[in-house]
């Protein structure tokens, strides 16, 4: 029988470098937009991630700015299966994040040299290509199927 993670367990689990799945309401005729993202989280703090401002990623940015809230899920896809889902409210949208801010997220997923190059290339463009969103987790769901 699965059990609910404790507050410390769920926050520690969310803080690990996993791929998050973001789901945002679409007020039109389409279903919610659900996409994977790289993110950062420190237990007790805010969740942060970036989106693009061009091409297909512009929809994600537009929907986040319009809705001001979203659901976010991370999972452990191998046994013992676990997941944490949080419902969040957007608290900030930085349209010109610095290389340090981008690197803080990217370095969780890429080797240091690749993260440095990526952060530098994406923040040197005059118009910027990222919006760094910050959000406060408000409601949590979690389950540990290994217990």
Explained architecture:
The chain has a single domain (7-95, 129-144), classed as Pnp Oxidase, Chain A, CATH 2.30.110. 27% of the residues lie in helices and 37% in strands. It contains four helices and seven strands, in the order H-E-E-E-E-H-E-E-H-H-E. The chain has a seven-stranded antiparallel beta sheet, with helices on both faces. Strand 5 and strand 6 (82-94) form a beta hairpin. The protein is globular, with a radius of gyration of 16 Å.
Please outline what is shown here.
With 147 residues, this protein is α+β, with helices and mostly antiparallel strands.
Mean pLDDT: 91
The count of domains is 1
The CATH homology group name: Electron Transport, Fmn-binding Protein, Chain A
Per CATH, the architecture is: Roll
Please render the helix and strand layout as text.
Elements: H1 7-15, E1 20-24, E2 33-37, E3 39-41, E4 47-52, H2 57-67, E5 69-76, E6 82-94, H3 99-106, H4 112-123, E7 130-144
Antiparallel strand pairs: 1-2, 1-5, 3-4, 4-7, 5-6, 6-7
Keywords:
single chain, 147 residues, alpha+beta, Pnp Oxidase, Chain A, seven-stranded antiparallel beta sheet, 27% helix, Split_barrel_FMN-bd, Pyridoxamine 5'-phosphate oxidase family protein
